[in-house]
Inverse folding.
């Protein structure tokens, strides 16, 4: 027997559509999209359950997205993963503790979705109990997955459990490159199977990619591939040297490559129907503004309402498998644990989250002096990884050199 999804009770579609189109209009103006109306009507409406009440665009997609690393266990050992062991943490939240966490997240009015990530969330034995619970309390479920475990039967089961989006990781349209990053032969073919199953089940397709020196030459073709697959959203992560990524720190994008990636996304977005959003690369938003000679005044203020740059701690929150609450998977600072403190208190009252919500007054170095600190703010994860201070300047920002 199917359980009715109650997500619709938590947002007003006309209001949400207005918010999303407001963001899209400014994006269209800045990118000079040649087929802008087609983009809106082909994918814009389908992304509404994923945006689900959010206003604007930012790092890791729309703000207002809590993510829960339900397990650190995974069936792959990808070379760049922010996780380390690949095995289940013996201190992971139990099923009952997980359901209490879901209830706490649902009590925060700005959160109407829940991203299930890992590790690989689909290897957690009680994953469908958890999905059903968040579906029943009105949250739209999103699965961030390597895709290797999703066949057609699994896709329809996910759909029945309130999953509105499958975020499948693809690191190159070249199977050899993807399999090298994923550390397992055949993983590309399994991801393709997941893509087709997701589309057949009527779930919004999202593709997650991590840009690093190993796959930068393949990114133009990958964006075309993702667009041709019919993905509604593509998150273009940048490798941050945390977890296993510490071992391949030399593969992180330097300033020139960061700039190239912004230029590539802007170029491809002119014709791509897929919404391409950078993660750990918030310089993309001021890059678009500078490209259109917007440095101050009304348009910059409007951009500050629409573009949120780094969303760590303000709109985005990451819950570890053991219940520790981080601002972001790349900002490895625990603000508290949901076993001891209510999630809402951690999110609204902890020092680290308060500082990140008021970062414009607290940022240091070049980020603190920058005219675009409202729309960008620098990557806080990169700042922490390279300086030990999450409020320090972003060491891979290319905007200062351009000026």
């Amino acid at each position: 027997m199917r359980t009715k999804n109650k997500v619709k009770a938590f947002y007003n579609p006309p209001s949400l559509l207005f918010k999303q189109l407001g963001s899209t209009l400014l994006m269209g103006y800045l990118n000079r999209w040649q087929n802008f109306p087609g983009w809106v009507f082909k994918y814009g409406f389908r992304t509404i359950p994923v945006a689900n009440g959010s206003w604007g665009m930012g790092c890791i997609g729309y703000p207002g997205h809590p993510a829960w690393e339900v397990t650190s266990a995974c069936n792959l050992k990808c070379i760049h993963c922010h996780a380390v062991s690949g095995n289940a943490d013996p201190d992971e939240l139990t099923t009952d503790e997980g359901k209490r966490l879901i209830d706490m997240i649902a009590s925060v009015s700005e959160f109407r979705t829940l991203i299930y990530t890992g590790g690989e969330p689909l290897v957690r034995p009680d994953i469908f109990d958890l999905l059903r619970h968040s579906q029943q309390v009105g949250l739209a479920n999103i699965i961030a997955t390597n895709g290797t475990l999703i066949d057609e039967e699994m896709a329809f089961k996910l759909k029945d459990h309130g999953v509105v989006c499958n975020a499948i990781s693809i690191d190159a349209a070249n199977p050899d490159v993807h399999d090298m990053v994923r550390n397992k032969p055949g993983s590309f073919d399994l991801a393709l199977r997941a893509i087709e199953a997701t589309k057949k089940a009527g779930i919004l397709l999202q593709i997650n990619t991590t840009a690093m020196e190993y796959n930068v030459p393949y990114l133009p073709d990958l964006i075309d591939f993702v667009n041709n697959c019919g993905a509604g959203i593509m998150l273009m992560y940048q490798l941050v040297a945390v977890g296993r990524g510490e071992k391949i720190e030399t593969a992180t994008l330097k300033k020139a490559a960061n700039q190239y990636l912004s230029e590539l996304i802007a170029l491809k977005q002119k014709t791509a129907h897929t919404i391409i959003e950078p993660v750990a690369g918030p310089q993309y938003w001021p890059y678009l503004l500078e490209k259109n000679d917007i440095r101050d005044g009304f348009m910059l203020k409007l951009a500050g309402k629409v573009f949120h740059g780094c969303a760590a701690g303000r709109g985005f929150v990451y819950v570890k498998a053991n219940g520790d609450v981080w601002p972001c998977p790349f900002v490895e600072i625990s603000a508290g644990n949901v076993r001891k403190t209510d999630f809402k208190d951690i999110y609204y009252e902890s020092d680290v989250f308060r500082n990140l919500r008021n970062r414009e007054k607290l940022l240091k170095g070049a980020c603190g002096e920058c005219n675009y600190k409202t729309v960008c703010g620098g990557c806080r994860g990169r700042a922490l990884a390279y300086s030990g201070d999450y409020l320090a300047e972003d060491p891979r920002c290319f905007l200062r050199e351009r000026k």
